[in-house]
Design brief:
This protein is α/β, with parallel strands linked by helices and about 325 residues long. The protein is built from eleven helices and 14 strands. α7 packs across α11. β1, α1 and β2 form a beta-alpha-beta unit. It binds uridine-diphosphate-N-acetylglucosamine (UD1). Uridine-diphosphate-N-acetylglucosamine binds next to α7 and β8.
């Protein structure tokens, strides 16, 4: 009986796969490598001592995807695969709706056909829109500001609807806050295509000398230093949340929804300072105007996950920065030689 991990060669997926393998789970990865590298599979083997079965398939190729279920006994699915760039989603909404929604529908229909009952979905704090207050609880109102976020919310809604009619289905909706950090070995980490949109990969590229300086998007927010505040969480903590969720689903939980964050908010300037300490260099920056669609503050109340899953984030900000830096400095060109 195997756990099928879609997007298992990606940033969060690969860290989760290693933890699954270390917990003696049988893991199958499906990934089209559109935003990841085949080398990740080698490094997963190097770090875990086991090579997961790997299918290089785009889920939209439905017949090929279904064949995985013919060839293997799939017990649970963790669904990471999806387009995830906010700005790109505004320019290519149809591509985002098609890829993220249709692939999820194909998975859900295939699960039905092959009687697979456990499904973990990568959602995002983006579904809280501009929250009325922080920390954010799971029952806060949901809204979105861009097509990427809308695909996350639409999939959540689909999952809620199907769980109403299929009482045997167990679904974990995990709302990630801001994932950063990397495996302690420095062998796998985040490697976005092109110029990074997100703060941490941007800072690491400045530190390694690939980008000249960081632009800080606004210093006039109502936060302790005027720059945006977020809940940065170590990718290893995030990965651990998936394993705990899987255990919960296997006990017939029905639909469950959890915030995965640390509950602590750090500003952009806090991040620059912490990262400078980790890499031993100044991070040059300048303050520019606000980025459209950004909010002042976003951090989680993760007590529900603590209470119901026995999960809690363990790594602090210094460790997040040290691990991000180890990955970047050991692999200045990411997975390319
Ligand atoms: C973004 C997405 C969110 C998505 C998440 C995935 C937006 C509006 N939101 O969250 O939907 O789920 O990534 O990780 O894009 N910053 C700078 N300079 C930079 C980059 C970022 O000052 O070059 C600031 C931002 O203004 C923000 C903070 O850093 O205050 C974090 O930004 P980012 O890493 O892009 O994450 P979010 O915007 O929180």
């Amino acid at each position: 009986m195997a756990v099928l991990v879609t997007g298992g060669a990606g940033y969060i997926g690969s860290h989760t796969v290693i933890q699954l393998l270390n917990s003696n789970e049988d893991v199958i990865i499906v990934d089209d490598l559109s935003n990841s590298s085949i080398k990740v599979i080698d490094r997963i083997e190097e770090l875990s001592g086991k090579r997961p079965k790997f299918y290089e398939i785009n889920i939209l190729e439905e017949n090929k995807f279904k064949k995985i279920f013919e060839e293997n006994e799939i017990e649970s699915i963790i669904h990471f695969a999806g387009f995830k760039a906010v700005g790109e989603s505004v320019n290519k909404p149809l591509a985002y709706y098609t890829n993220n929604l249709v692939s999820t529908l194909i998975i859900l229909n295939t699960m039905k056909e092959y009687n697979v009952k456990n499904f973990v979905f990568s959602s995002s704090a983006t579904v809280y829109g501009d929250p009325k207050s922080c920390p954010i609880l799971e029952d806060f109102p949901l809204s979105t500001t861009n097509p990427y976020g809308t695909t996350k919310l639409m999939i959540e809604n689909i999952l809620r609807d199907i769980c109403k009619t299929d009482k045997k289905l167990n679904v974990g909706i995990l709302r990630y806050f801001n994932p950063v950090g990397a495996h302690k070995s420095g062998r796998i980490g985040e490697e976005p295509n092109g110029i990074p949109n997100n703060l941490m990969p941007y800072i690491t590229k400045v530190a390694i000398g690939k980008l000249e300086k960081l632009s800080i998007f606004g210093d006039d927010y109502a936060t302790h230093d005027g720059t945006g505040v977020r809940d940065y969480i170590h990718v290893e903590d995030l990965a651990a949340g998936h394993l705990k969720t899987l255990t919960k689903l296997r006990n017939n939980s029905g639909l469950v929804t959890y915030n995965l964050g640390t509950g602590k908010g750090y500003s952009v300037l806090d991040m620059v300072k912490a990262f400078s300490k980790a890499c031993g260099k100044e991070i040059p920056y300048s303050i520019v105007g606000r980025r459209a669609g950004d909010i002042a503050m976003c951090y989680a109340d993760s007590n529900k996950a603590k209470k119901e899953l026995g999960w809690e984030a363990k790594y602090d900000l210094d460790r997040m920065c040290e691990d991000s830096w180890r990955w970047q400095s050991n692999n200045p060109n990411g997975y390319e030689d």
